Every structure is written in C-alpha cells, then in structure tokens.
Amino acid sequence: MINDGAIVVDIGVSVLDDGTIVGDVDFESVSKKASMITPVPGGVGPVTIAMLLENTVRSAQRSELLIA
Description:
Pfam families: THF_DHG_CYH_C. This protein is an alpha+beta fold. The chain has a two-stranded parallel ribbon with strand order 1-4. Strands 2-3 form a two-stranded antiparallel sheet. Strand 2 (14-15) and strand 3 (21-22) form a beta hairpin. It is elongated. It starts with 6 loop residues before the first strand and ends in a 6-residue tail after the last helix. The chain contains 2 helices and 4 strands, in the order βββαβα. It has helices at residues 27-30, 45-62, and strands spanning 7-8, 14-15, 21-22, 36-37. It has one domain.
C-alpha cells in the first residue's frame, strides 16, 4: 500500500514471542517498492540518540549555570 519509490521510515517496534525485534512495516515486501527503508532494529534509533545529545548540549550551552 505504498507508492513506487516511496521513502519509508519504520519507527514502530514489536517484540515477537521468540524475542526477535521487528518493525511494523513488512520489510521484505515494502523494500521491493520503496526507494529507501529504515531497518528495525538499527534504523532511527541512532538518529534519535544523536538528536537527544544535540539538544542536551544546546540546552547546557543556554543554561545560566554554565555562564561564568
């Protein structure tokens, strides 16, 4: 149910009974139509962590506590 060439960002995470972590998107079938697709696990997690660190640093730089 996606257009040819779509970019798919799978942010959903499910844990199967055997402990396997999978996304909400059927990776195998969607990857045949999508131009790009994020894997699960390992897709958007690193981006989320990077943005969290960036926002933490920006917040600390703006904090009056760090101004000497």
